[in-house]
Amino acid sequence: MSEADTLVRPAAAAAPLRLLVVSDAWKPQVNGVVRTLATVAAELRAEGDAVEVIGPDRFPTMPMPSYPEIRLALLPRLKLARMVDAFGPTAVHIATEGPLGWAMRRLCRRRRWPFTTSFHTRFPEYLQARTGLPPRLAWALLRRFHNAAAGTFAATPSLQAELRGRGFNHVLPWTRGVDLALFSQGPVDDFPGLPRPIFLYAGRVAVEKNIEAFLSLDLPGTKVVVGDGPQRAELAQRFPAAHFAGWRIGEELARAYRAADVFVFPSRTDTFGLVLLEAMACGTPVAAFPVQGPIDVVTDPRAGVLDTDLRAACLAALACSRDAARAHAERYSWPACAAAFRAGLVHLPDEA
After folding, report:
1. Is residue 87 exposed (0-12), middle (13-18) or buried (19+ Cβ within 10 Å)?
2. Domain residues for 163?
3. Which tens digits make up the pLDDT trace of 248-282?
């Protein structure tokens, strides 16, 4: 029996919630976790729920070792408890397994509050990529963290099956969405003068994203990297022919997707890959490895190519249909994503 095997009630479908989300990944960070949480919070607020997100921006912080762009909350326990009491939640979701996540987990356990969690990041593989440490101990720690919850959301069927196989209890489905108005087909007006075809990567520039596998490929045209991170300087020096465009958000990011002939996703460790949907929504076909994330998201062979040979996938994706890529992305909506998330939440006891 797990730590979370207590009677919990699903959140009511009609009654407005006071939902507290605690996340170590929050603005000003730029990544898929932050975009997902911010967008789902906005969708729920539009439907009448009150949503409070507590992130590291409200606490003294320190830089994450080996990744200084990410700030970690320092000793958040007492201040976090005061914030929780001031908001008065009727449901709690813990999004990440960092200092804030563990502090909120401890508070909920002490108060006997049910809560949900979500599995966004394969930290065991990230730690292995950065430090060489075997992932077994990290998986055990994650299992302990999440099995205290009433449910753990996971984005894809393959991830859900893997977590169950690793001993995670109460795994819940929660897919992702894409802003189909922002990320849309349109005129190609970015990267003028760069030789075509343009192969684009967008996201964090960090070792776990396996960007070197993309930049090392012998491809025609130009390789473009949109994003930033701890590996950017090294990669820019090693691959001077590539074009490093820095961070882009909103319409600037959409223009970058539209300007690309192929979106290349070299990661082998992402649990979903929100950028896959954004690129396809802009009509840009995808090239990726056939691994968790892409195998669940890029399921139409007309919209992208998955191959263990990434170069072959890139070249084959040039022949994919931009209209088919857009049509495939249209299957994903943020309202449906938010509704699935809300349906899995649980109410706190009435006396909380």
Report:
1. middle
2. 9-177+334-347
3. 999 999 999 999 999 999 999 888 999 999 999 99
